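Incident log, support desk, overnight shift.

02:14 A customer reports that sequence design results differ from what the structure should imply. Their input is reproduced verbatim below. On-call engineer (initials T.W.) acknowledged and began investigating.
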């Protein structure tokens, strides 16, 4: 009997060339997370299994909760599928949850919003143990002014100034539902929720907010940059600090 199976996946993106399977020309650069999961599915079911996913992540980006679904004709119990896949996957990819969903469900198209979390270590002392999982910034950041700038980004706007290769999109209009900036000890967490993200949009916003926090961009300049009245050259924050944190399905 054909089943549509939903899975929530956690992974450390350090050793992967992003999420999405690459073209033949780019495969030589390294394997992807999607490729590893599809290889495990092929071993388990002895056939090619195509998966749909909530969103792509770039090289070095991690996920607390990447969501996927795949359709398969099988009588294997769901708990056994989860156990088998985790035994076949490398230790930096883990299936956290698995369940049956309606046949019409699609991990990307049914998503109402996604939340990306960015982690900054804001202290003078560097830690080699965090170098692949957070952006180390020794300079003091003004979180109060960063929060004010973040508030100006909330809403449905043209975010082409924060996109990589903006011209490739028919529209750069996206709705940012919220940006939350919290600090716990020396760790700063920036959570960005939107109905969709342009390529590098989350990392470019983080770098932008950090520049505001350092006093390199004034609050008066934020709207002018968004409206393309003031020139702004985007540069993404390092990939290591970004996590696909949650996918909301309503």
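02:41 Re-run completed on a clean worker. Output:
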């Amino acid at each position: 009997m054909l089943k549509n199976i939903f899975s929530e996946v956690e992974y450390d993106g350090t050793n992967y060339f992003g999420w999405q399977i690459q073209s033949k020309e780019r495969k030589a650069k390294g394997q992807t997370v999607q490729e590893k999961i599809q290889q495990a599915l092929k071993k388990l079911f002895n056939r090619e299994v195509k998966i749909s996913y909530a969103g792509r992540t770039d090289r070095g980006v991690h996920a607390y909760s990447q969501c996927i679904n795949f359709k398969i004709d099988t009588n294997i119990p769901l708990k056994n599928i989860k156990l088998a896949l985790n035994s076949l996957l490398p230790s930096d990819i883990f299936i956290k949850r698995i369940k049956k969903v309606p046949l019409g469900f699609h991990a990307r198209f049914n998503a109402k919003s996604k939340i990306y979390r960015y982690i900054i270590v804001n202290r003078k002392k560097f830690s080699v143990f965090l170098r692949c999982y957070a952006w180390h910034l020794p300079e003091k950041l003004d979180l109060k002014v960063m929060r004010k700038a973040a508030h100006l980004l909330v809403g449905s706007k043209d975010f082409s100034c924060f996109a990589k290769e903006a011209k490739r999109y028919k529209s750069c209009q996206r709705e940012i539902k919220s940006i939350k900036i919290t600090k716990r000890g020396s760790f700063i967490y920036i959570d960005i929720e939107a109905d969709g993200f342009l390529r590098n949009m989350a990392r470019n916003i983080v770098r932008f907010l950090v520049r505001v926090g350092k006093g390199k961009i004034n609050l008066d300049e934020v709207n002018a940059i968004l409206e393309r009245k003031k020139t702004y050259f985007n540069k993404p924050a390092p990939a290591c600090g970004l996590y696909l944190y949650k996918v909301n399905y309503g």
